[in-house]
Amino acid sequence: MASPITVDLDAAKAALTSLKANPPSHDDIASDPEAFLARLGIQVDADTLSTIQSKLSAQKALSSESEQAAIIHIDS
What we know:
Blueprint: E1 5-7, H1 9-21, H2 26-31, H3 33-39, E2 42-44, H4 46-71
Antiparallel strand pairs: 1-2
């Protein structure tokens, strides 16, 4: 059985300097997590990618609800 996550250690080490110099934003990561991970030398299988995407979608939904709640003003 193949591993769901494969890491190219040389690529990951090389990416470390770039990440320190230019940290990605949440949107950079969330817009295409597979491509972001690939730039770091990390390959994920379809099931792992699906899990990542569903977690990002759930987080986005919660964030959206929080933003809406923050707009509501109640006088007492």
